[in-house]
Specification:
eight-stranded mixed beta barrel; single chain
């Protein structure tokens, strides 16, 4: 298992020692860009981590949000892309169909990049209607690392948010994760 974190503008600093991958929040909806994106990406790349970017999905306008995300996200071979599908701060959520449209549009616009679905166990079990996770499921289920309580195949497991979001990825090495990302 590989170890990684995901960060947003709330994490002003994060340690890269012992990390194999870092996901950075890039955008949200159609109006927010992480003001710390550039520095967080530089920190991850300087540590030779596999880098991923994620977009926090709001209800509606899935294709527009996909374009907004990609217009503001660096494009580099081997970087991973993901959609963060969960409840918004306003208590709403994008539909399963919105999630599917977003992933398909990102895959259409950047066909040489892997696109993952990030969601928590409750969303996966109770709100997903298609079981579509693009190129892989990134599941949040707090508890024992690499043991999410789902029956579906997964690529990344977020197992805690203390003191920040920590994840494991089901790859034998950083090189294997990079090779998968480039496929």
């Amino acid at each position: 298992m590989l170890h990684g974190v995901d960060v947003s503008a709330f994490q002003t600093d994060f340690e890269t020692d012992g990390l194999d991958f870092v996901f950075v929040k890039a955008t949200e909806g159609r109006s927010y860009v992480n003001p710390k994106l550039k520095n967080q990406v530089k920190r991850a790349r300087d540590a030779e981590c596999v880098v991923g970017f994620y977009h926090f999905l709001w209800p509606g306008h899935a294709k527009d949000q996909a374009e907004y995300f990609l217009d503001r996200t660096p494009e580099r071979e081997g970087d991973l892309l993901a959609v963060d599908w969960e409840q918004t701060g306003e208590g709403t959520r994008a539909s399963s169909a919105d999630k599917d449209r977003f992933i398909r549009e990102v895959k259409r616009l950047r066909p040489h990049h892997r696109v993952l679905l990030y969601c928590n166990r409750s969303f996966w079990l109770n709100h997903d209607t298609s079981s579509y996770a693009g190129d892989g499921l990134w599941i949040a289920d707090y508890g024992k690392a690499a043991a999410p309580r789902i029956e579906s195949a997964w690529r990344i497991h977020q197992y805690t948010d203390d003191p920040l979001d920590k994840n494991v990825a089901d790859f034998s090495s950083r090189e294997a994760m990079r090779a998968w990302a480039k496929a």
